[in-house]
Design a protein that fits this description.
Bound molecules: flavin mononucleotide
Helix content: 40-55%
CATH superfamily: Flavodoxin domain
CATH topology: Rossmann fold
CATH class: Alpha Beta
Number of domains: 1
Distance between the termini: 17 Å
CATH architecture: 3-Layer(aba) Sandwich
Structural class: alpha/beta
Number of strands: 6
Shape: globular
């Protein structure tokens, strides 16, 4: 039997929406036959800032055992799925800070040909979901990755309505619906399927 595709799901989440989406992505990728690592990027906010938001405090405590991402996760992976909430239409500083440390891997060509996709969550329906995904994907171009967009290629994705990547609208305390979770699950499985096909075709 051929070796399993290795997928690293790397995320940042303050109040849990992205984490919930990442968990569904893990389950779907596992079902699609991948070996999966779930990794969070390091927190940058001060304890004082976090303490102002009860949900942030709770989420931080609940996910304290999720390992932090390392360079080994990036080099190990055939494929990457990266998630971040929107911050003023952009990915979080926490995710960007981690990405900004990857220069040495980039310089050695260790990020080339990774099969990649990204997902997000924002408070309002037009609050920057697409711009956040596209900003994450800009980094993928520089890394020399192969971006897999979910498109509208099944009815669940049509319902979810974001061909750039799965996204959630969290205003009013809404947690990700089944439609959103199915869309991120589908996105994760599609990344795994594309990675498998390219591996069969001889691409490392
Ligand atoms: C500093 C800051 C900036 C934000 N900027 C936006 C924004 O531009 N548009 C938007 O819709 N939501 C914005 N939000 C809301 C978050 O993106 C949203 O609550 C998201 O669902 C949080 O994801 P999480 O639960 O995984 O942390 C912002 C939140 C913070 C704290």
């Amino acid at each position: 039997m051929s070796e399993k595709i290795k997928l690293a799901i790397i995320y940042y989440s303050s109040t849990g929406n992205i984490f919930t989406m990442a968990q569904r992505a893990v389950a779907a990728a596992d079902e699609a036959g991948a070996q999966v690592r779930l990794r969070k990027v390091p927190e940058l906010a001060s304890d004082e800032a976090i303490a102002q938001n009860e949900k942030w405090v709770r989420h931080r405590q609940e996910t304290k055992d999720i390992p932090e991402v390392s360079f080994d996760d990036l080099t190990w992976a055939d494929a990457l799925l990266i998630g971040s909430p929107t911050r003023f239409g952009l990915p979080t500083a926490q995710l960007k800070q981690f990405m900004d440390t990857t220069g040495p891997l980039w310089a050695q060509g260790k990020l080339e040909n990774k099969i990649v996709s990204s997902f997000t969550s924002a408070k309002t329906p037009h609050g920057g979901q697409e711009s956040t995904i596209l900003a994450i994907n800009n980094v993928f171009y520089h890394w020399g990755c192969i971006i897999v967009p979910p498109g509208y290629i099944n009815s669940e994705l049509n319902k979810a309505g974001n061909p750039y990547g799965a996204s959630h609208v969290s205003g009013g305390g809404k947690t990700p619906s089944e439609t959103v979770l199915n869309s991120v699950g589908f996105q994760a499985a599609r990344v795994v399927e594309v990675a498998k096909a390219l591996k069969r075709g001889g691409m490392d």
